[in-house]
Amino acid sequence: MSITTPKGFVAAGLAAGIKASGALDLALLATEDGIAVPTAATFTSNLAAAAPVQISRAHMAANGGRASAVLVSSGNANAATGDRGRADATLMCAQTAAELGVPADQVLVCSTGLIGIPLPMEPITDGIPRLVAARAGGPDAGADAAQGILTTDSGRKEVLVTYPDFTVAGMAKGAGMLAPNMATMLAFLTTDAAVEPGPLADILRSAVADSFNSMSVDGCTSTNDTVILMASGKAGPCDPTLVADAVTEACADLARQMAEDAEGSSTVFQVQVTGARTDGEAHVAARKVADSLLVKCSINGEDPYWGRVASELGSAGVDFDMDRLTIAYGGTTVCRGGIEVPYDKAAVAAHMAGPMVMIECGLGLAAGTGVVMGVELGYGYIDENRTTS
Amino acid sequence: MSITTPKGFVAAGLAAGIKASGALDLALLATEDGIAVPTAATFTSNLAAAAPVQISRAHMAANGGRASAVLVSSGNANAATGDRGRADATLMCAQTAAELGVPADQVLVCSTGLIGIPLPMEPITDGIPRLVAARAGGPDAGADAAQGILTTDSGRKEVLVTYPDFTVAGMAKGAGMLAPNMATMLAFLTTDAAVEPGPLADILRSAVADSFNSMSVDGCTSTNDTVILMASGKAGPCDPTLVADAVTEACADLARQMAEDAEGSSTVFQVQVTGARTDGEAHVAARKVADSLLVKCSINGEDPYWGRVASELGSAGVDFDMDRLTIAYGGTTVCRGGIEVPYDKAAVAAHMAGPMVMIECGLGLAAGTGVVMGVELGYGYIDENRTTS
Question: How many CB atoms neighbour CB A173 within 10 A?
Fold first, then answer.
């Protein structure tokens, strides 16, 4: 399985020489026949958006929601690179488009890696013709593309969701800066279902909200985050509700793979808030807990220090009544009515020693619910992030 | 020098037995003659406020801004303890008031330590009569009080600001959860200046905003934060502007002592934002940078990775134009117009190896300025916070 499993897509990946390690660092996803197909994209909310985000956003605004290809480079984010960065991103699209024989605004571009350093353009302009020439269907080409978009990831992240009438496939890159509003993460999805640009954009927006935007590694929002969904239509018209379900399932699976691969981290935890005034308030409260350094440290230490969870909920800026609070770890209630209750300490200890810790918080106010995934804070995160060298 | 240096105050501290270590854990600050004096207090914004915060807040609302004494216990926060916690805090005030012969609502109470565990009341009720009996002026009693309020602090935090006509003294406890809106920190200030309750509250509010609320260790807001300022009036009426200056200076000094003593941390950094649309936006942007895990890791690694600073500014939710951005470390500009410029790498490396790193961010939009202090993220923080045992 790969990004090329849905009918109508080809891909490629190669080592152009951006990364000193010699690892794959250039990837292409394109339609098989060069025809522009309905395409949806969501971009980072960061106002310091990288050059490729600026250029891709402009292309999406100009191409009527139809694109032919996506070029991805890894190892350098082309962020905080000013006019030169914009010129480089524009050139990458133009050259790819020329090689494919399509208009430049039908090509989108994404980059990921270090911030603040101009792209090394020579390997990229040398690599693009070879990359385009290498494009192919089949699992090998898809695997090369999925490999070529990675940075600090420990391995490829791919997903395939199969329905009777159509398929959805995806590949993603992301570890470390994952956070509110999708920090340094890239995800690409393909489907052979026929969906028009408008509904396709709605499907992607909703899927991203329920997946990538409901996870947090360190609360940082990157300059380069992008999710792109292309629909070839080769499988013909399909029930849009089923397509939405499949895309959401694919995004959730990729998001989980990213959380499990968060830089230097192993234990993932999920904060579920129920009983909030609204779903929005539940989400805000769950994110406050998931982002908390102290809670992350407790997860690292396998310590069910629920008082810190209560403290974060109380300072989340949402409606809160300590006397109605219930907190459970993995289904074992440790706090009820805002105070500790006797509980099975062995059961909680066993749960916290596992790979996925569940923190369930009941606010007891109304019916709002929200879930956010977080990652523990341990030495590994610091080792990974203290220097860029 | 101590909290009793301003005329009209006595203090005491002793080991009641709350802490298993046998360290001092009960402290008293009181007026020399038992008379209630103008007193101002600010409390945590956390809706999971601890029992002593709830009771002290109620007493301040009832006593017309005049109090006779403050009782402080350390080792257990009496937070997330429900009705029992409120009864315990009420009893602590009532017993202290009875020993001093003053109304109960003229006594305030503060606790600090672990959350979620009921207070051990026997040592406290045994200790209060001894504590009240031991109250005295002079530096030894003040030092005992300053010692008795500590938890994970590495030592006492005290300050004295002397003006020709009056003095302001302070003592504080805080390390670790320091954050927006004053996380687990307690500070107590005394002055012999004569200031009425209303102006005294204004003076304290402003001083806290410019000191304790402009620092961040980990972005967590505690359940127990309290700052109390008592004015004995023994020095007679003084220029309120000078009193405000002195209180602000004392608070800023205590805040600096806390930042330098942040749990498991050594390098403190200061984020200065200029050129923002407003002072408020500058403060928000500076806090976003100071709270960033990635920036904190970079400080730990002595890495001037300004791209992360730019990324945080861009996602701070304030007006921002990457093309106008300037970033400097310790006065050496590394980024201008949103891109890296050649700079003296040796000078920046030397600055980042020092005990206080200055990050200066110019947004180039208007005249708004703001400063927030942060603390690096290293192994020490994790060691300190991963378990409570």
Answer: 27
Give a yes or no: residue B3 inside a domain: no
Q: What is the pTM of this model?
A: 0.78
Domain that holds residue B331: 268-385
Find the catalytic residue in A81, A90, A184, A326. Answer: A184
Contact A47 B80 (CB under 8 A): no
Q: CA angle, A301 as apex, A299 and A307 as ends, to 5°?
A: 60
- Chain B nearest-CA distance from A309, in A, is 10
Least Cα separation, residue A386 to chain B (angstroms): 4
Q: Do B55 and B99 reside in the same domain of the chain?
A: yes
Is residue B180's pLDDT more than 50?
no
CA-to-CA distance for A1 and A14, rounded, in angstroms? 19
Complex ipTM? 0.78
CB contact under 8 A, A315 and B388: no
Report the number of distinct structural domains present in chain A: 2
pLDDT tens, residue by residue, A199-245: 999 999 999 988 887 776 555 567 898 999 999 999 999 999 999 99
Nearest chain B residue to A222, by CA = B311
Backbone angles phi, psi at A287, to 5 degrees: -65, -40
User: Which residue on chain A is closest to B378 by alpha carbon?
Assistant: A382
For residue range B3-43, list pLDDT tens digits in order.
999 999 999 999 999 999 999 999 999 999 999 999 999 99
Q: Token match 């005990």: residue? A: B355
Q: Quick one: tokens of B239? A: 């220029």
User: Does the distance separating the beta carbons of B306 and A82 come in below 8 Å?
Assistant: no
